[in-house]
Amino acid sequence: MVIVQTVDGEMGVLPGHIPLVAPLDIGPMRIKIGDDERRAAINGGFIEVTASQVIVLSESAEMAGEIDIARAESARQRALARLEKKQADIDFVRAQAALQRALIRLKVVGYEG
After folding, report:
1. Can you list the domains of the chain with their CATH numbers?
2. Mean pLDDT estimate for the chain
3. What residues contact residue 91 under an 8 Å CB cut-off, 6+ apart?
4. Which pTM value belongs to this model?
């Protein structure tokens, strides 16, 4: 089973799922094979489901074991600082996206700092 965050909400795909293409949001991806579960942080993109496979196309994807917790926490703090300044020269949409990416990375690794 593959579970992803689409722009319309969470979606799970099991073998035999109907073919589809859906846009992905920034969010976690879980891959379940039996009792084994792997997690990744996905930065938008698309999921394509065919009769025989699931393809995830994303700007970036980081498996939980590849995520640097200190770097993600630092990115979270930088994004929060930008958002708190409320200055006209700050790109709020970009800062909010950076914050969301950092929070998803931390969530995927189970960091609760």
Report:
1. 2-64 (2.60.15.10), 67-109 (1.20.5.440)
2. 93
3. none
4. 0.85
